[in-house]
Amino acid sequence: MSERKKFKIQRALGIELPGLGKPGALETRNFPPGQHGRNKKRSKSQFALQLIEKQKLLFHYGLREEQLRRFVRKARTLNAGNWIDSLIGLLERRLDNVVFRLGYARSISAARQLVSHGHVTVNGRRQTIGSMILRPGEVISLSERGLQMDVVQSSLRAPRLTMPSFLQYQNPSTPDRGVVLSIPGVAHVPFEFNSNQVAEYYAKRGV
Question: Where residue 43 falls among pLDDT bands split at 50, 70, 90?
Fold first, then answer.
């Protein structure tokens, strides 16, 4: 996805999504794209508000609709009473997202590429599937070659986000290994997000 398209998506949703990488989408044009973007001040319908919140998750985590629906169904089986918290717990523990949140990549798509190219190990075993769900206690590390890559070193020097509380480096002085400490929840979503709107969106569609 081009930088221009990423900026256009974020402007349409009215928010910066860290998972898309480069910041600054709303710095100069904090209004929706299009000829009449500056004038779009009409109140949004309930459906439109729900759709926006759902789209935030899709674009930030780099998912397709059916992928997100599968996560929703899985979250419901884990915790029917508060499945949104379980949903975020699953999304934030995806391997590609954890690689991103550890600061090894500037975007989730870049983190997914590191994984698919075999630069990431979990508990010492190489993994190539970014959608892998990690468990508390698991250790994530980069290959020696991966850690030396310019893009990785650049990201470590200036990570897109601060380290979330559910992760930490195994050795604070060296960033080569990260550990999942706990299961994250809605509070760990790194952008403004209305979980109730997402819950209502999928409830009305019987997902």
Answer: confident
Amino acid at site 158? A
Is the torsion defined by CA of 45, 50, 55, 56 positive or negative? positive
φ, ψ dihedrals at 28, nearest 5°: -110, -25
Please answer whether residues 198 and 50 qualify as being in contact, where contact means their C-beta atoms are separated by less than 8 angstroms: yes
At 36, the pLDDT band (50, 70, 90 cuts) reads very low
Say how many residues make up the chain: 207
Integer CA distances (angstroms), 18 to 56, 99, 105, 139, 207, in order: 10, 13, 11, 23, 27
Strands 174-180 and 139-142: antiparallel
C-alpha distances (whole Å) from 13 to each of 33, 51, 123 are 10, 10, 38
Residue 35 has pLDDT above 70, yes or no: no
Q: Are 47 and 205 in contact (CB under 8 A)?
A: no
CB-based burial label for 8 (10 Å; 0-12, 13-18, 19+): middle
Q: What per-residue string of b and e applies to 170-197 under the rule 16 or more CB within 10 Å gives b? A: eeeeebbbbbbeebbbbebbbeebebeb
> Which 8-state DSSP code applies to residue 94?
B
